[in-house]
Amino acid sequence: MLMAVAVTVSVALMINKKREPLHLSFAALCVAIAFHRGGLFFNLFYPHAAWSLIERLGLLAIPTLTIYFSRDLFPGQTLIKKRDIRTTALLSTGLAALLFTPLRNLAYIGSGIYIYADALLLLCYFSLIVHAKQKTAGAEKKRLVYLIIGCTAAIATYSIQPLFNLVVAGTLYFILIMIIHPHLTELHDLMTRASVTLIVSLFATVLFYLVIGFFGPGPAPPFLLVFMISFIIMIAVGPFQVVLKRLLTRINPEIKDVFTSPFDLDEKLEREKALLLEKMAPVFAHEIRNPLGSIKGAAQLLRSEAENEEQKNLLDVIAQEVNRLNRVVSQFLDYARPYSSELRPRQINAVVEKAMALIEANRLSAGIDIQWELHPHLPLVPMDQEQIHQVILNIAINAIEAMPEGGTLTVRTSRIESDTRDAVGITIRDQGAGMRRDTLKQIFTPFFTTKERGVGLGLAVCERIIRGHGGKIRVKSIPGKGTIFYIRLETVR
Predict the structure, then answer these.
(1) Could you report the per-residue pLDDT of 63-120, keeping only the tens digit for each?
(2) Whether the Cβ atoms of residue 324 and residue 453 lie closer than 8 Å to each other
(3) Burial of 59 (0-12, 13-18, 19+ CB in 10 A)
(4) Chain centroid to CA 59
(5) Which of 56, 270, 295, 314 is 20 to 30 A from 343 in CA distance terms?
(6) Does 228 fall in a domain?
(7) Structurally, how many domains does the chain consist of?
(8) Nearest CA to 351 among 391, 379, 409, 410?
(9) Is the pTM of this model over 0.85?
């Protein structure tokens, strides 16, 4: 069981495209665990000196690789130093050499190897505790605490081998998630990912027993065995698919999408649609703007020769509608074209002030009371200043248009603190008519609008800009009371 989990985890790390030193050191540790537990397992069923040798060699490699991995995972620890890797490697090599001599048959050699390995692993365990006490509160300390909990559980169950194997297997998988997804620092985020695998494994186990109970005449295998096999299959599916996909791609390069799920196909189709839209938009805009230019030019020429006011007014309407269509085409291009943001550290308050000043200067806020509540000490935000200015201006103008009878527009900036990375929040609130739930679900959908002469691209462009900055935008609205837009932007690391 533990051997299979260790092999699966090591393969998952080795075939990962981003093979970082941390991944490779943990993969090597898992290989050593697989050799140790595999040799122990096969020696029980097929007793042979070779299996015993493999088991002991794997055990001797574990301490050195554990120290190496812990140094990679937490490079700032002080109790275990870099020279300890070389020292333990020399000791392990010396003990391994004894296994190829007649001394290997001595009883105290086997027990000595276990004592040596256990002592070094305990040293690594205590070094993590010391390092955790020295660290200030933050993401790294949380990861340390999670790892210490797993190691403590393994030590507590050491004398109960089946439970010990289960705890170590779970800890290996937990560490795999932790190092592959370093952005997940909260325990509930890590546990959620691990829980999905465990729940599906449990479901497969229950389903197996239902089938066995219905069709099987004989006694069913132990529950723990079936559960662990289901768990191993669950975590092995991903690596197996990657390996098989690479092999099949070498044989037939056109078979790349053979393992794409139906749900992923929908996402792929959306990406292809977006790419097609990016290619078509400039051609579409060019073909529309050319005749629009001719229409507007002709209307202006005819207006200069018009004999009465009625004709002039009709020609003015033509020119105005041409301008409106040009704006529609411009918005369509803004949405369709790929963004090439130049992100530079900026003060968000300066962007908000510029947008509000522009609204007041153009008398867009007649009858509207604008209130600013800007946090005085905000960190810098990596952003494209013009694009964020466009977002704030667009949402603020929408808020003003939602209050035709007057009201208060409130713009706030705030600091959002977290253990990993602080963020800046922007809140834009109006006292308009609000939106119903069905409308609220579609406001970021392209070409959806509730305005009589709207295009429905303004908020879609805003959402795309914020997403391109690695931020988030969400909205809450209560009919009759108003709407609030929340924007979150990550700060400079």
Answers:
(1) 899 888 888 877 766 677 778 888 889 999 988 898 888 877 777 787 888 898 888 8
(2) yes
(3) buried
(4) 36
(5) 270
(6) no
(7) 3
(8) 391
(9) no
